[in-house]
Structure formats: C-alpha cells, structure tokens
C-alpha cells in the first residue's frame, strides 16, 4: 500500500473518523486496502466512506485487484441475475480462505505453504514429476510457485494456480479427458499424463476437489464443472470427454463413488448422482440406487430446517456437513438417511471424510477422528493447534497453525 495512503488511514482511524477528502481520493484509498476487516472498518469512519462502500463499482474494483491482480487484463465472468459484486467478493473471499493447504491421495501428498508454493511428495502416477528435461523442469517450477487449491486422488493430482488455471497429471483412465496422444505414456488400465496438462474451462477456478474416479471445480461465478466417471448403472460407466457443467452454483463440493454433494450459494446441501443410502433418498423422493440427474435439495429435520452450511465431505456411503455455526451433521452408512447432529461440545471449523473414516477440527485446534461413521473416538492428542487435516486410505496428514506438517497412520486404537 502507498505510504501516504497508509499514513492517512492510520491518522484518520486514530481520530475515530475520516478527514474530509475528495471522492476520487477515497476510492483510491479503498481500492488499495488489502485487508477486508480494515476495509469494512473504514466504512464507519465517515458518511462519505460509507456511501462509497455501498457502491457496487468499488466492490468490482476490489474483486479484480484482490483476487485476480496477477492478470487484471482478464475480464471476470459476468454477474448472474440479481447478483452483486459485493456478494461475489464475499463468497470468493470465503471460498479461498477455506481452501485446504494439504491433500492426500493413495501414495502422494500435496502441500501449499503460506506463500502459495506447492510441493508434491510420494510416488505413483499422481506424485512427484520426474524429468530430466530442463524446459519441463522450468515449467513445473513456475507452475508450482503460486497455487491456491490442490486435490490428490488415488492416482492423479489436480491444482489451481493463482491465475485460476487448472492443471492435472497422473492416471487418465480410458483417456476420458481426450488429451493428444503425444502427452500420454503407458497403458496400465488407462493412460498416463506424466506432465501437468491444463484443463480448459470457461472461467477462472477457485477450488478443486476429487473423489474416486472423478474431479470437480468451482469457478469464479460459482458454477460447478465435473469430469471423470459421472454415472454408473452397476456395469457401465458414463465418462464425458470434457468437463460437464452442473446445474448449481456452489461454495463447496465433494464426491465419492459416482455420487456428488455440494453446498449451494444459498448455504443449503444438494445431492446428485448415484443415490445410495447416504444420500438421504427418503428425503430426495426416490428408491435406493436410483440415479439423480439434477442437484436435489437435502431436507433436514423440521427443527433444523433453517440451518445454513459452509462445508460438505463424503466418505464411502455417508456424508458429513458443517454448518456456519460449527455444528456437524452426518447421515448414511449405518446411521440411516436422516441427518443426525454429532455431539461436539465446541464449534467445529473443518471436516474431512475418507472411506469409512471421518475427522473434525474444533475452534481450539483440537482434532477428533473416528474409524467408522457414528463411532467418534476421543480427540487424538496432538500438542500443537491443527488447522487442516486430509484423510487418506493408508495415512492422514495434518497441518498445524504454524505451517508444520505431520503424518500419522490410520490406526486409531
């Protein structure tokens, strides 16, 4: 931030009000403020600031500067009907702030440090990129320098760069993504992408998630695109050759076993895909194992029908959902189709599920982890406060608040 602007802000805030300035100067000051809390605080310092802060144009300026300053020449995707730039700014801020910095696949682990630099560890098709080609090394080093989201699956890895571009490498079963043959190597149950390939999408991405056989992204207008195995009739699989748009705008997304769950921009839970017991089919209005084509609202017990959610995570045949007030609901597996409130005494800030295991981190940084749905163990004793957890099949990884990484096996006894 410009030193003169910084001095003006500090002096004015110390007075409890803002000195009289021309509107042009006020707009310049507001556009330069990076911290959202400081920005909102300034709106109360004077009527002039408050008035300008209500103008959607200033929010559009901040949106482009704060989130896409790496390439401000690229026009953002247009607003949808009744959407404002202020709403888009706040939802984008929420999504990016909640992007986990760690992800675990079957044999690989991806990490994003505090500066945005990405590293990948472990072997396998979606693990470390091994090459002697100097041009490829340079490309990968630059690609990994600024990453905002990562998703490691069983045999592939996907990242989103600071510019909102999506790159994918690892196993590409049956060449679902239809990459040119020159990029492929091997044919062990599919094809292999040894070098990150860009997945071309109609806008910049904010988040990537993956499940067994499928991958999804949320774009800057909160539209959802998925690819990989998207449908199964028990024998055959449907796998489109390009990312497919879902009829939903979302702030979070999870997938597993050809089933998909998301938190819509209305903070409600939606389900589509192969409907198993965990999908809450009694509420969705269809028999078990029916294919649900469109995202369908999951209904909660009447007493909880005003709940708002911010995160969802799917395991094998069960779903966890985290409310905006820190409550965790779970349904499916042996617990039936009705969402049940889990008995945490402290508000939860993050959840993660994998296969039949689940985990949650509370606002004190304490980790809860269990080896079967509805069988919550005592908090695992890890001294430092935990910020993120990623569950894997063979182990799980946690990141402490200070950025330290620790790996644990999945033995919970």
Please describe the topology of this protein.
Layout: H1 3-15, H2 23-32, H3 36-42, H4 47-53, H5 56-68, H6 85-98, E1 102-104, E2 108-112, E3 118-122, H7 134-143, E4 147-152, E5 156-161, E6 166-172, E7 191-199, E8 205-211, E9 214-219, E10 223-228, E11 231-232, E12 237-238, E13 244-256, E14 259-264, E15 269-274, H8 281-284, E16 291-297, E17 309-314, E18 318-323, E19 328-332, E20 340-341, E21 348-354, E22 357-362, E23 367-370, E24 386-391, E25 395-400, E26 405-409
Helix pairs in contact: 2-4, 2-5, 5-6
How would you state the average pLDDT, rounded?
80
Share in helix: 10-25%
**Strand proportion:** 35-45%
What Rg do the Cα atoms give? 22 Å
Overall outline: globular
**Which spans have pLDDT < 50 for at least 5 consecutive residues?**
278-287
What CATH calls the topology of the largest domain is Methylamine Dehydrogenase, Chain H
Total of DSSP H or I helical runs spanning 4+ residues: 8
Number of strands: 26
CATH architecture annotation of the largest domain: 7 Propeller
Largest sheet: 7 strands, antiparallel
Would you tell me the structural class of the helices and strands?
A: alpha+beta
How would you sum up this structure, described in words?
This protein has about 425 residues and is an alpha+beta fold. It folds into two domains: about 5-85, no CATH class; about 95-410, Methylamine Dehydrogenase, Chain H (7 Propeller). The chain contains eight helices and 26 strands. It has helices spanning about 5-15, 25-30, 35-40, 45-55, 55-70, 85-100, 135-145, 280-285; strands at about 100-105, 110, 120, 145-150, 155-160, 165-170, 190-200, 205-210, 215-220, 225-230, 230, 235-240, 245-255, 260-265, 270-275, 290-295, 310-315, 320-325, 330, 340, 350-355, 355-360, 365-370, 385-390, 395-400, 405-410. Strands 8-9-10-13-14-15-16 form a seven-stranded antiparallel beta sheet, with helices on one face. A four-stranded antiparallel beta sheet has the order 4-5-6-7, covered by helices on one side. Helix 2 crosses helix 4. The longest helix is centred in the first third of the chain and has 14 residues, at about 85-100. The termini are far apart.
């Amino acid at each position: 931030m410009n030193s003169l602007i910084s001095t003006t802000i500090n002096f004015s805030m110390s007075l409890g009000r803002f000195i009289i300035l021309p509107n042009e100067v006020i707009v310049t000051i507001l556009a330069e403020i990076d911290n959202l809390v400081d920005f909102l605080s300034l709106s109360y310092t004077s009527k002039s600031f408050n008035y300008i802060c209500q103008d959607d144009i200033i929010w559009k300026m901040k949106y482009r500067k704060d989130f896409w300053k790496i390439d401000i020449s690229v026009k953002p995707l247009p607003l949808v009907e009744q959407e404002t730039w202020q709403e888009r700014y706040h939802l984008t801020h929420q999504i990016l702030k909640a992007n986990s910095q760690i992800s675990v696949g079957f044999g690989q682990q991806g990490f994003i440090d505090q500066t945005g630099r990405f590293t990948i560890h472990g072997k396998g098709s979606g693990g470390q990129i091994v090459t002697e080609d100097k041009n490829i090394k340079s490309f990968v080093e630059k690609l990994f320098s600024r990453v905002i989201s990562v998703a490691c699956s069983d045999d592939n890895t996907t990242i989103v760069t600071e510019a909102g571009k999506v790159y994918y490498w690892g196993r590409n079963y049956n060449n679902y993504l239809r990459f040119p043959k020159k990029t492929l190597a091997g044919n062990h149950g599919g094809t292999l992408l040894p070098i990150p390939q860009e997945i071309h999408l109609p806008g910049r991405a904010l988040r990537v998630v993956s499940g067994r056989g499928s991958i999804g992204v949320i774009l800057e207008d909160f539209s959802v695109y998925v690819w990989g195995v998207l449908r199964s009739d028990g024998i055959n699989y449907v796998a489109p050759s390009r990312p497919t748009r879902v009829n939903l705008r979302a702030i979070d997304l999870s997938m597993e076993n050809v089933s998909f769950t998301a938190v819509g921009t209305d903070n409600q839970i939606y389900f589509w895909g192969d409907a198993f017991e965990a999908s809450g089919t009694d509420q969705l209005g269809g028999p078990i194992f029916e294919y649900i084509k469109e995202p369908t609202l999951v209904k909660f017990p009447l007493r909880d029908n005003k709940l708002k959610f911010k995160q969802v995570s799917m395991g094998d045949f069960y779903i966890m959902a985290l409310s905006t007030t820190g409550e965790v609901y779970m349904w499916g597996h042996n617990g039936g189709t009705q969402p049940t409130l889990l008995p945490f005494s402290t508000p939860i800030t993050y959840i993660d599920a994998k296969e039949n295991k689940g985990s949650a981190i509370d606002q004190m940084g304490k980790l809860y982890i269990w080896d079967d749905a509805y069988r919550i163990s005592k908090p695992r004793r890890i001294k430092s406060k935990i910020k993120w957890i990623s569950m894997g099949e063979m182990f799980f990884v946690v990141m402490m608040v200070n950025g330290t990484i620790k790996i644990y096996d999945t033995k919970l006894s």
